[in-house]
Recover the amino acids of this structure.
């Protein structure tokens, strides 16, 4: 259940619509992708961006409330942090894979599967070439949270997944990763977005 308040919680700016994200995504993609691949990737990622924006608009006010009243029922909050990581990883994987394809003179039409070990460095070369923003570490932390969706090796886990879905351990590095990406082509990031609001 959501806690309904009379006022908008601090931190919630507004949701963009998916088309607002097309320009930023398009600027982040390299030239030379197969037109159909480029079109599908932009479509996939713009819808993920809108979902991330809605989640951030709910997560941030709850996570930053201090001792104030709850905005979200706690189980929703933890799972939304997890879902936010899944979405951020998808954005990073899509952009990184596109970059890797072009670095390797491919256009994506052959449906190559690109492993994280391949696309991760391509993503960092484009969005954090100096390493000052710790994009590699943040994406790895996001991936570790995202991988909790796999429930096929439960005996290998020391703790329940719940502990990995906290605001500090899941949401914060995922939001930092997104904000790192936004520094490239910042002029076309939608101005009013929960993903950029402090």
């Amino acid at each position: 259940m959501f806690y309904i308040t009379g006022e908008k919680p601090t931190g919630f700016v507004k949701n963009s619509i998916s088309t607002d994200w097309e320009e930023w995504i398009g600027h982040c993609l390299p030239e030379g992708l197969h037109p159909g691949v480029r079109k599908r990737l932009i479509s996939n990622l713009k819808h993920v961006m809108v979902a991330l924006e809605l989640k951030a608009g709910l997560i941030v006010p709850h996570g930053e409330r201090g001792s104030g009243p709850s905005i979200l029922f706690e189980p929703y909050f933890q799972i939304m942090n997890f879902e936010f990581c899944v979405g951020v990883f998808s954005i990073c994987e899509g952009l990184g894979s596109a970059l890797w394809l072009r670095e390797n003179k491919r256009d994506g039409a052959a449906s190559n599967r690109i492993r994280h070990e391949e696309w991760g460095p391509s993503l960092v070369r484009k969005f954090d070439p100096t390493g000052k923003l710790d994009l590699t570490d943040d994406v790895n932390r996001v991936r570790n949270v995202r991988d909790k969706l796999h429930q096929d090796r439960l005996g290998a886990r020391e703790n329940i997944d719940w502990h990995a879905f906290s605001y500090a351990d899941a949401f914060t590095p995922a939001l930092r990763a997104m904000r790192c990406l936004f520094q490239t082509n910042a002029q076309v990031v939608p101005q009013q977005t929960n993903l950029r609001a402090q």
Observations:
- The two ends are 25 Å apart (CA to CA).
